Amino acid sequence: MKLVGRNRLDEFCAMHPDGRTWIENWIADVEAAAWTSPHQLRRRYPSASFLGAGVTIFNVKGNRYRLEALVAYKTETVVVLWLGTHNEYDERNKKR
Fold it and tell me: At residue 45, what are phi and psi to the nearest 5 degrees?
């Protein structure tokens, strides 16, 4: 898969160095993946949540952080939309 938004991941890791190893492993997984459906993605990330329209939430570091990404299976692209703490995610979604 092609990964778009690595700059967001780099910024996150600079602010939350405890998440760096998980993020680096996730990047490697994404770039090596050839997911064609949410079912295939879920085999690797069983705790992933699918919000519709390709938006997927990944639980980072035992759900301490959340990563929101758009997974476009047909174009084999993953776009990082947002990344932050679980509390920031909850606050962000109250406003929706």
Answer: -125, 80
